[in-house]
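As a representative case, the lines below give one protein's residues and fold tokens.
***
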Amino acid sequence: MSKDKLKERLKAFFLRIGSAYVKFRTSAGFLWTILCFVIFWMTFHWVFGFDKDLGGYNSILSTEASIVLTLVQRMVEKQTEFQIKLLKYIAHQNEAILEIARSLKNQETN
């Protein structure tokens, strides 16, 4: 397999994973998961003195937020690329319609 082919397959793979994660993150399941995580962590923090400065807790949530930001940014870029292609196609179609209209107008005046 060539490098370009492998690169494209990896890109598609990570895009699928990212899309699935972003979809999960916007679901009720994610809210329940994060709520259970927070309750679990805070219970261990208050009862057993686990992670006294909450540095681990902060690191985990910050890492998760950074991952999501990267995924959402990439999805926005993909959407923007698609919109640009779509707008170019629409502009091309409009030019064709205008050309047909001009041609018909010239036929009527002749």
The chain has one domain: 3-109. The two ends are 61 Å apart (CA to CA).
